């Protein structure tokens, strides 16, 4: 397999750090299959690009995944599941015209200080869509109203490693009190179980970045470091 290393650029999560990426550099008919392999060693997808952080001076980014059959919700997560039980979810594989207006509003009202502001349709398409695999979307509805979308990859690595990969979630800011970010992860865990998959990948936990701390709140979880997955449960010393 061929890989390339990007130039250094300012880190989106740790303002005092520089970021570099290790990027899968081949383009062939086996992209989706390669992705299903590479996600197991800490890689992730953004649009067409398959990458992993490769920063010489920093090792803060760690890939996190949830073993769905072992996962049990915490007390607060159980309360959240009960509070949001009237909402309805469904997994689809076609982009709908209602997605971008919801995404635009979410970025503008919730993340105007982030790297994805200002939003644009081109940015959205380049981030989400992919020619070599089908992008899936877990939709959430309050009645007939679309309130959240979790962009989700369905990764069929093999019978032991099939997974969902949570790419990004955006939601109606009016529903902020419903903790839809956390709830949509819970829904992806349930969907992975329904499909018979074993993991939900959450992307990177970034040590020192408060915005990424929620990824350690789904127990047990596995974290990739030193080229292997380490399991952390309620009785483990959770890495910080």
UniProtKB/TrEMBL annotation:
Domain N-end aminoacyl transferase N-terminal: 10-79
First-level EC class: transferase
GO biological process: ubiquitin-dependent protein catabolic process via the N-end rule pathway
Name by which UniProt lists this protein: Aspartate/glutamate leucyltransferase
Name of the coding gene: bpt
Function text: Functions in the N-end rule pathway of protein degradation where it conjugates Leu from its aminoacyl-tRNA to the N-termini of proteins containing an N-terminal aspartate or glutamate.
Organism name: Alteromonas macleodii (strain English Channel 673)
Residue ranges annotated for the N-end rule aminoacyl transferase C-terminal domain, each copy included: 100-223
GO CC, alphabetical: cytoplasm
Compartments in which it is found: Cytoplasm
Protein family according to the UniProt entry: Belongs to the R-transferase family. Bpt subfamily.
GO molecular function: arginyl-tRNA--protein transferase activity; leucyl-tRNA--protein transferase activity
Entry EC no(s): 2.3.2.29
Cited SUPFAM superfamilies: Acyl-CoA N-acyltransferases (Nat) (SSF55729)
First-listed, main subcellular location of the protein, grouped into a coarse class: cytoplasm
Catalytically driven reaction(s): N-terminal L-glutamyl-[protein] + L-leucyl-tRNA(Leu) = N-terminal L-leucyl-L-glutamyl-[protein] + tRNA(Leu) + H(+); N-terminal L-aspartyl-[protein] + L-leucyl-tRNA(Leu) = N-terminal L-leucyl-L-aspartyl-[protein] + tRNA(Leu) + H(+)
Highest taxon, organism lineage: Bacteria
Keywords: Acyltransferase, Cytoplasm, Transferase
């Amino acid at each position: 397999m061929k890989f390339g290393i990007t130039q250094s650029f300012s880190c989106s999560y740790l303002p005092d750090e520089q970021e570099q990426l290790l990027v899968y550099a081949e383009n062939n008919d086996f992209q989706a299959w390669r992705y299903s392999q590479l996600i197991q060693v800490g890689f992730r997808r953004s649009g067409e690009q398959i990458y992993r952080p490769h920063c010489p001076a920093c090792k803060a980014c760690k890939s996190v995944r949830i073993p769905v059959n072992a996962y049990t919700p915490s007390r607060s997560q159980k309360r959240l599941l009960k509070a949001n039980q009237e909402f309805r979810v469904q997994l689809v594989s076609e982009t709908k015209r209602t997605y971008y207006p919801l995404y635009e509003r979410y970025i503008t009202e919730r993340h105007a200080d982030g790297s994805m502001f200002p939003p644009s349709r081109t940015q959205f398409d380049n981030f989400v869509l992919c020619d070599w695999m089908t992008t899936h979307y877990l939709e959430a509805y309050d009645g007939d109203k679309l309130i959240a979308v979790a962009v989700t990859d369905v990764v069929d690595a093999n019978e032991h490693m099939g997974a969902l990969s949570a790419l990004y979630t955006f939601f109606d800011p009016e529903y902020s009190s419903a903790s839809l970010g956390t709830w949509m992860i819970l829904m992806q865990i349930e969907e992975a179980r329904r499909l018979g998959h074993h993991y939900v990948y959450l992307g990177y936990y970034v040590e020192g970045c408060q915005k990424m701390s929620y990824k350690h709140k789904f127990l047990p979880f596995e974290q990739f470091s030193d080229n292997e997955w380490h399991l952390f449960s309620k009785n483990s010393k959770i890495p910080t």
